[in-house]
Amino acid sequence: MPRVMIIGANRGIGRALLDGYLKKGWKCIATSRKEQAPEENVTWIKLDIRDPNSHIPLTGELDLLICNAGVFLERGAKLGSGYDANLWADTFSTNVTGTYLAIETQINVLKATKNSKIAIISSQMASDTTAPGGSYIYRSSKAASLNLGRNLATDLKSEGISVGIYHPGWVQTDMTGNAGNLTASESAAGLIKRFTALSIETTGCFETWDGNIHPY
Ligand SMILES: NC(=O)c1ccc[n+]([C@@H]2O[C@H](COP(=O)([O-])OP(=O)(O)OC[C@H]3O[C@@H](n4cnc5c(N)ncnc54)[C@H](OP(=O)(O)O)[C@@H]3O)[C@@H](O)[C@H]2O)c1
To answer: Which residues line ligand 1 (CB under 6 A)?
Structure first.
């Protein structure tokens, strides 16, 4: 059976992705900052993606690495009275540096696996084409994760590793205060189809959960 590693799998979209891959019978490696109760067919790893020392390379093979963990910290911030420098640092250390560290740590097992894939959960808020304003920190961090994914796609193509970047929809999770128009399971079901469709021909794509190409 193929093996997937899901970063930030204890709640929200990450948990729904884990449930989706368990249903498909995949071997699942799931990460969480907090200790999780043992579960059949899941290897839980404790990982805070901001901490370089907590990233441990896997051995063997890895078919799919999903970089899902993320934060939105600037709720209610207003231009001129918010967007504290610490919020920039904390958001970037998770959404950008953490994503990069997770990929770098697993690069050798991905290289050792035929047709392996990396999926980065970014956001429609990464787009500079749409640019509706506001949420400057989160938008910048997601734009950086999109840019990271696009450049990794270029560099990893010759290694046979495909990289896709995704908008999961507006999803009912803690991040949105459950205000989305999609459940986490609906989002995950769509994303899993997109990850299956991802190939070396489509590497570097920026797509929505339901298969539309998203403008950069
Ligand atoms: N929900 C939406 O509508 C929406 C829209 C666009 C993009 N996204 C993106 O989709 C992804 C998942 O979002 P969600 O809605 O499922 O959010 P969520 O419910 O808030 O869950 C976020 C997940 O990320 C983990 N995480 C946060 N900081 C971490 C760190 N430093 N180290 C390790 N794990 C960390 C959380 O773990 P803890 O439990 O330890 O905090 C949790 O598992 C994020 O990248 C988000 O930006 C979401």
So the answer is: 8, 10-14, 33-34, 47-50, 68-71, 94, 98, 121, 123, 167-168, 170-171, 173-176, 180
Q: Quick one: DSSP state of residue 93?
A: I
CA 124 to ligand 1: nearest atom: 6
- At 158-181, the pLDDT tens digits run 999 999 999 999 999 999 999 999
Question: 16-65 pLDDT, tens per residue?
Answer: 999 999 999 999 999 999 999 999 999 999 999 999 999 999 999 999 99
Atom of ligand 1 nearest to the CA of 50: 31
**Atom 38 of ligand 1, nearest CA residue:** 33
3-208 belongs to which homologous superfamily?
A: NAD(P)-binding Rossmann-like Domain (3.40.50.720)
**Consecutive H or E run containing 30:** strand 27-32
Given the CA of residue 11, which atom of ligand 1 is nearest to it? 43
pLDDT tens sequence across 88-131? 999 999 999 999 999 999 999 999 999 999 999 999 999 999 99
pTM: 0.98
